[in-house]
Amino acid sequence: MSVGPSASSVSRTELFLGFFEIGVLGFGGVLPWARRILVEKRGWLTDAELTELLSMGQMLPGPNVTNVSIMLGARYHGPIGSVIAVCGLMSAPFVIVLALATLHDRYLDVAAIRGPIRGVGAVAAGLVLSTALKLAMALPKRWWVAVLAALTFGAVAVWSVPLVFVLLALAPVAVFIAWRSAP
Amino acid sequence: MKPGISLVDLVLLFTLTSLLAVGGVTAALPDIHRQVVDVHGWMTSAEFAELFAIAQAAPGPNVIIATLIGWKVAGFWGALAATVALCLPSSVLAYTMSRVSMRHEKKKWNVAIKSGLAPITIGLITASGALLTKAAVQSWASAVVVLVTLALSLTTKVNPIWLLVCGGLCGVFGLVG
């Protein structure tokens, strides 16, 4: 069981840069990059800890990785840390998207970028699946964990149940079971 | 177009969306579309689709669609206002929750919540991967791209940026879809 790094080990600059990396590379989706940068590259979180933060982020409104940046930033440098992390995450995308929009207005045709976008989309899909599997490996090997994960997957991907209902139905059950299983 | 009024409407719309969009912006997209195109008439459906395509080309979290809508409606300040409006309320909530969680880190209820939600989160991420795959796979070629990405990502330490570049190139050469 690994312990997370202590608060003092991440400077404000590093915090900004870490999330900046996630933002600037996040073509097709930021989640795989969040895991790669936060867990693999910088070791700020373990897979289990990232899953915890994502879980909290999932329950709250707002984009998940953005919520993670808020929470992780807060852990290291309080409210300023949150601001730094979110700004780090959003700056490159903000600038890039406006640059793309300006270019699009003047030169490009949207149809021209459809091809590459589709290609990137396919890779992004593969990366998300891979991230899911890697995070899944850090889950405790209990029967109820597997059942809950499978049920959630089925509800959303197979039966198209709206997310809110899935959470309302499964979250209390899950927490209850976890409570009962705790030592 | 009256920039002053639009800016206020923009901020209101995205502030509300920020608080309602549990699980992310993607779920709120149809409603955003309805508000932007039908209710406020800021752009046509086709223009919205174009903005969406550009948003997909850019990196970053899905909030970036708000940046583009804001930019279209009210230029740079619209882009900034919309982005902040979409991020701020949910961010404040997330910050508050994280403080609560940190203060009670060792409590049994906190641990139970985190370990209980973990499998649900994994299920959700896997499901979103499956849905992304369904949307991305238009041909056997794109299916191959997804599978190869998955395999390489799991078995090698290759930097995903190369995979993305390759995917983009495949798309440029018309190999995908």
Main traits of this protein?
heterodimer; A: 183 residues; mainly alpha; 7 helices; 0% strand; B: 177 residues; 81% helix
Your description of this structure?
The complex is a heterodimer of chains A (183) and B (177). Chain A has helices at 12-25, 31-41, 47-59, 64-106, 110-137, 143-158, 163-181. Chain A is mostly helical. In chain A, helix 1 crosses helix 4 and helix 3 packs across helix 4 (64-106). The longest helix of chain A has 43 residues, at 64-106. By secondary structure, chain B is an all-alpha fold. Chain B contains seven helices and no strands. In chain B, helix 1 (3-20) runs antiparallel to helix 2 (25-39). The longest helix of chain B is centred in the middle third of the chain and has 40 residues, at 64-103. The relative contact order of chain B is 0.08. The interface between A and B is large, with 100 and 96 residues.
Question: Greatest contact pair?
Answer: A-B, 100 and 96 residues
Class by alpha and beta content of chain A: mainly alpha
Helix/strand order of chain A, N-terminal first: HHHHHHH
Overall, the morphology of chain B is flat
What integer value in Å does the Rg of chain B equal?
20 Å
Helix/strand-derived class of chain B? mainly alpha
Largest sheet of chain A: none
User: In angstroms, what separates the terminal alpha carbons of chain A?
Assistant: 16 Å
Q: State the low-pLDDT regions of chain A, or none.
A: none
**Mean of the pLDDT scores of chain A?**
89
Cα shape of chain A: globular
Distance between the termini of chain B: 39 Å
Low-confidence stretches of chain B: none
Number of strands of chain A: 0
Mean pLDDT of chain B: 89
Kindly provide the radius of gyration of chain A, computed on alpha-carbon positions and rounded to a whole number of angstroms.
Answer: 18 Å
Strand content of chain B: under 5%
Question: Could you tell me the strand content of chain A as a percent range?
Answer: under 5%
Question: How many beta-strand elements of chain B?
Answer: 0
Q: How many strands, what sense, and barrel or not for the largest sheet of chain B?
A: none
Helix percentage of chain A? over 70%
